[in-house]
## 1
Amino acid sequence: KAGVTQTPRYLIKTRGQQVTLSCSPISGHRSVSWYQQTPGQGLQFLFEYFSETQRNKGNFPGRFSGRQFSNSRSEMNVSTLELGDSALYLCASSPGRGGAEAFFGQGTRLTVV
Amino acid sequence: GEDVEQSLFLSVREGDSSVINCTYTDSSSTYLYWYKQEPGAGLQLLTYIFSNMDMKQDQRLTVLLNKKDKHLSLRIADTQTGDSAIYFCAETYTGGFKTIFGAGTRLFVKA
């Protein structure tokens, strides 16, 4: 069974630009969650999608958005990038039955210069 | 509020047991997890415990849950150098749609 796939693995963007990150969950999993990991703030929850609907959202500005497609693949978008958005963005997939274990991808490391 | 706290560092000798501790705040948490993160990698789920359990054992790993004190621990028996990593404690809120992570405990294993 293939794991969670995140693309790209590494990304360098300039302040003010926008970026889209992709996550393909484990086959059969319908829930996708996104997290931002930084040395100072640790792992912060961004949002969770299930069957194309956002079920929960963390405390991030509106520049951070996401969506989920009918095949459960998810994308997250960050507009008007700031230096502080530099982080490892992790995606996790789970069957979505509430509280089931989540499996993480390798992450996308975003550097904003 | 939502908070999960862990000590930041732990150093043990190879062959000894490691105990990593965590406290959480939400008494309505349904699942509590331990994840491992090695350098440059994503998070690997090690084990999890449902909130109505006190203990779970899985090979070298033992999870203890004290729900009254909102305290979770992970014991790694016969710690090996390959166990060196960051260990994250996490809790899932009622409804299961949001998981809150601790800051992670960096485990150093000395040969």
## 2
Amino acid sequence: ETGVTQTPRHLVMGMTNKKSLKCEQHLGHNAMYWYKQSAKKPLELMFVYSLEERVENNSVPSRFSPECPNSSHLFLHLHTLQPEDSALYLCASSQEFPSANYGYTFGSGTRLTVV
Amino acid sequence: TQLLEQSPQFLSIQEGENLTVYCNSSSVFSSLQWYRQEPGEGPVLLVTVVTGGEVKKLKRLTFQFGDARKDSSLHITAAQPGDTGLYLCAGEEGPSFGNEKLTFGTGTRLTIIP
């Protein structure tokens, strides 16, 4: 399998649940990103990992917890979310951070609904 | 952080027509990228422009970077239903190409009616 793969594609969770989003890249990239995409808003950068080290955390609430166990895998752990957290969560990778030379490769996203 | 405004926000036209969408900022970009996002998928990179005044063509799509590197346009000739999607511009902040992360624009949602 090539590119960036995200699972699950769809997730419905209650506000008291704990769930995790998974992202896997097979491109040999060194940087991985989590973005939040909501209606009528630009893509919001949440977290960046470069060579498995977190290099950016953009004031994201603690109910979102990222994990990068190796350069190919990225997780986003979710707990006690709010309805306003419902959105499309996109994972992306790039050859390096912060370089955007060759662009970002995105996964298909996880459509999250918090009820 | 640069704010990238895209216009129009929504555009719906008939198959075969031409269209132009815009990406503007008050700041200078060191480079700019265009992505297309189809329903249910993530954005896919279409092009990167680096030099002020640069024009790049990708089949029926023409991308232009403004001379001052503050704006960009995407022109589609003879639009087809397969062009439907959300078009995102993304600017690289900072003075030098290849050294900064991307900031994404607000997007133009394009619908081509068969």
